[in-house]
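ugh ok fine here u go
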Amino acid sequence: MLKNWTNIFVYHIKNNKFFTALNILGLSIGIAGLIFAILYWNDEHSYDQWNPEKDKIFIAMNDFGGGNIWTTNSPIPGRMLNATTSYLDKYCYFRVNYTTETIQYNGKIELVDKIFSAERSFFSFFPFEFIQGNAKTAFSDRNSMVLSKETAARIFKNENPMGKQVKYADRIFVVRGVYKMPEKSSVMPSVITPVVEEELEQNKDNWGFSYGLMLKLKKPIDTTAVIQKLDKIFLEDNYKKQAKAEGLSIEQFIKQYGDPIKSRLLPLSKARLRQGNYAFPEQNANLQFLKIVMGLSILILILSVVNYINMATANAVKRAKEVGVRKIVGATKSQIVTQFVFETTLITLFSVLLAMVIVELSLPFYNAFLNKDLMLIGNQFYFQLILIFFFVIIVSGVFPAVYIANFETLKVLKGNFSRSKNGVWIRNGMLVLQFSIATLFIIGSFIVHKQVNYMISKDLGFDGAQVMDIAFRPVKDKIQYERYKTIKQELSKIKGVEAVSTGVFSIGSNLNSWQGLHYKSNKEVITQQLGLDFGQLNLLGIKIVKGRDLSSKLATDSITSALLNETAAKTLMVKDPINKEITFGGQKYKVVGIVKDFHYIGMEYNVAPMIFFHIKSVSWMENYLQFITVKISPDGMPETIASIEKFWKTKVDQEYPFEYGFVDKNFARTYKKYQDQRNLFALLNVVVILIAVFGLFALASFSMERRLREIAIRKTLGAETNILLKELSKQYVLFCVIGFLIGIVPAYLLMQKWLENFASRIDIPFLPFLVAFVSLLFLTLTIVLAKAYQVTKVNVLKYLKYE
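structure:
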């Protein structure tokens, strides 16, 4: 029986080579798209799954209200929680960012990135596999260091690193362990040290939120009790003490400064996919992009399956007599259904194999696009591929098979078999669905393109062209600000250098520092603090809209003067904020100017309240400079940069490489993920239109070829070609219009939802809808009229000679 079915299948392929090829190509494209999405989905969901403690580990976060959630913590609550509750097994503070630094051994210097620092309990939370040494002895003291296998090979080559001394951050460390880097982890460091413990000890009474905090609970169900305890610690040991110090009752203090911060616990297993601030140095997943990729890939597969069903049911009429004969000789409906499902299984098998070839050939480009290293391996992936295989067979095979098996035998064998009205309606309905999906993609692609271009061209409030941010590494026992002043004088002498300044921030980076600002009895507002040197705002092209800039000629401007941006000024709720005294971080400042709002980070965020003051007005800032900002002339830029690099390597830092970035390019990275979405939409748009063209062409071909006798009769009766073309194409134009009208509703709603991610956004224009309609109508008419014109050239005698 299988041999007979196979022979029939091969026979029909030979007689329908072109349409079989379209079927296989359409399905393979749809399956390949879903395979790409599944590989991406699996990769992002695999982070930390290797960790046996993942269900007990939680990240402590702080909710400031208004959707403002921080993943950083004070050094105080972890220690107090450990001393006052029985629910906690262990806690671990860590630095939330990696550092890049040089490590010296035997006179050789290696620049190492992804250096991580955490308390000595770290390996209880992330039990990395040790190749040398072990987790218990790895951090026997604060001068201990553990290395990844790759880093150890770089620094020590073939030597045994255990017990070796290296110089890092102007200190001597001893290597006490080598671990194997985990493949998918929220923390994937090259080097780990416990030096953060010294900072925690120095700041043990400081409520500043600067460190990540992991908690390992004895039982995962105790999260509510731990949150309540953290909230109580913050209320009793922070809010009430501050209220007492200011002579206020706790009720008065809350009225002035707002509600106390509320704690939250984020499970480690969900940390990677959380949107917003991320607790760990590794970047979090772009969950929205992940969902878009998966959703669009499923739509494309549906489109491919719809194509297959359309062509299968349209082709069924050609096989009506075959079905009738098989029924006469005793075939049951179930046998006929099984035969056609068998044929669909073979088509799907060929499609899956072709899809795998497409994915394998395209995977390097896909990996480059996502900055991933995805591979076609893994039991989970193979299981999902089998599910896709059976899903396509069931959806695209069973319905056409049942439809064909229900042909009426007598009508078929009498030769007066006509199309089932139900079959026609189903095919037409699916064609409308194709037009709707194509409408969604065209409109979506156009709107994403417009929004990304809007972000690229929008006035950001600063001018980062020809402005360099040069990495400024600290030196032990030397104050950064004093070093900067000397460097500034020398840099200013270099030809092509127009201005030099610095600040405790870098536009487009994740460098953030926030405290509470309030005026008189107004409610405290969490405000971003940006310490800077004189001239920094002017260098960046940031305008003063009212008042004046900070000046080196006024001694108070480096002590008690401050600037507010327009957003922060509005929080004072006064008509003229100039010369008003405000309180920020417990210190008094006089407002001397208002800075025009500018975008500091991505444009999906509103401009935050900002306060600007001189670096020397806050003592800790003098030693916290990470960049020196240099504006250079556009003329002779390569020569100027080369001169700066030469000076830097000879006079500033001979060990650390000269690293710099341009401010405008740094900021451009903040919306790169949306540029990726734009490019993805454009690519998938082409794929969708291609599949829709396949389906429309095949369906139109089948439909018109069945009307060849009707066309011959019409031509005999004198019908003109243009009349025939109009008659043959009008139903497809109608389906195009109906599909478009259906598609614009979900397209509008989905794109409106997508645009809600942006504080600065376009309004959805009418043009994308017009472009979608004109594009679909043009494609429909081009394909249908081309095929219609071909069939109007039919040989009349060929179809009427037996009438």
